[in-house]
Amino acid sequence: MQASSLIIVIVGLFAAAALGYFAARSAPKKQPAGSKNTLSSAGSASQSESDDPQGSGTEDADIMTGAGRAVAQESGSSASDLLERLRDAIEHIEQGVILCDDTGAELFRNQSALRYIEARDGLVLVEAAVEELMIKALTGRSVRREVELFGPPAQSFVVSAQPFTDGAGLGALAIVEDHSLRRRTETVRRDFVANISHELKTPIGALGLLAETIRDEPESEVVARLAERMIVEADRAAHTIDDLLELSRIEFGDETEFDQISVQSVVSEATARIAAAAGHSGIEVVVDLSPQIQVLGDRRQLVSAVFNLLDNAVKYSPEGSEILVTAVVESAESDPQELPLGLGPSGLSTGDIVRLSVADAGIGIPRKDLDRVFERFYRVDRARSRATGGTGLGLAIVRHVVSNHQGNVSVDSIEGVGTTFTLSLAAIQPLQENS
């Protein structure tokens, strides 16, 4: 059984059991649903409501009311114990659960419901939706409403309510689900598809136009110039595809192979790969680190991350400038939370952190863009990025590599002065000390 189906069964069982139990045995005085919250139009939101033709589990609900009768027939202690166990289970699920009897008196709401519909900011609109849908559910309708809160931050909730009945009418159940993360994921996916379509269509379209021009061009010099431009556009498309494949491999692949690795060897390989581009611009890459510094990681991924930082630095640095690569080991004792997960002092880790930094003297990054530079296809200066052949994927690759290694990446930048990217990874004992 899938997790979502299991949750529905547990919630339905609890609702039916509780309603049957309280209906059979006079329940203590209950608080009317929504009595502590006042309907308000505060906040910016949109709402859409519909009847649920599938019943949102109403058929299951009708079946589950049999459990309520069974509980009611049990001895007091047995029924109470079962309800308590079901209550404990529901308290720990992510969905908000609210239960009321046939008079609208609230019997139960779990911790998630308290969190989702507490009357503050725009969440008062979610509370209002719960109240209104509960009333409709008590008339025998299964209803569903989407509530969008425009924030910031933007939030998305789905509220559904359904009746629980044994023919005489027992009550209603409302479920509140937070779809905010799902909506954000959909937005990121949609933006990604739009961006990749644009990034590939532009060079491919340019290649088509250049090819048509060459076909009808009699001048050999013009043909040579256009052919050179075609090579540039083809390289641009190829680099985008290569970076996409690399990002996909790092983000979704199962090829990660962790081993004890010398940070110096990783940096040496990355600097060798960037040497030609740096030399073309007269940029010197200076490396200052100890050969003894070791990390546990995937060599290919770490080389890719350092290379992308160096590539970024070369593209945004003036000719004749210097890029400095450093690595130091710092104690994590002052902030234990910063130590990457799974590599604590009891394992290979020394309990320290390796700070691997790439610093340039380039144009810098505006403060408003610092939080977005690791997004796919995000470019601070699109014109310069296109001129230098950037794909907008390099820093996204860096972020995912660090995430795979349970570390973190930070950026410090001053416009017109330069930028420093720092990777933080768990340090481990040098190879010879673990042999």
Automatic annotation (TrEMBL):
User: What GO CC terms are in its UniProt record?
Assistant: plasma membrane
- According to its UniProt record, this protein's enzyme class is transferase
A GO MF annotation of the entry reads: phosphoprotein phosphatase activity
One Pfam assignment: HisKA
Would you kindly state one Gene Ontology biological process term found in this protein's UniProt entry? cellular response to phosphate starvation
Histidine kinase domain segment(s)? 195-429
Q: Reaction(s) catalyzed by this protein?
A: ATP + protein L-histidine = ADP + protein N-phospho-L-histidine
Which InterPro entries does the entry link to? BphY/WalK/GraS-like (IPR050351), HATPase_C_sf (IPR036890), HATPase_dom (IPR003594), His_kinase_dom (IPR005467), HisK_dim/P_dom (IPR003661), HisK_dim/P_sf (IPR036097), Sig_transdc_His_kin-like_C (IPR004358)
Instruction: Tell whether Transferase is among the UniProt keywords.
Output: yes
Q: What is its EC number?
A: 2.7.13.3
Using the UniProt annotation, give all residue ranges assigned to the region (Disordered). 28-62
Q: Please indicate if the UniProt record lists Transcription as a keyword.
A: no
Q: Which UniProt keywords apply?
A: Kinase, Phosphoprotein, Transferase, Two-component regulatory system
User: Which Gene3D superfamilies has this protein been placed in?
Assistant: 1.10.287.130, Histidine kinase-like ATPase, C-terminal domain (3.30.565.10)
PANTHER family reported for this sequence: PHOSPHATE REGULON SENSOR PROTEIN PHOR
Q: What is this protein called?
A: histidine kinase
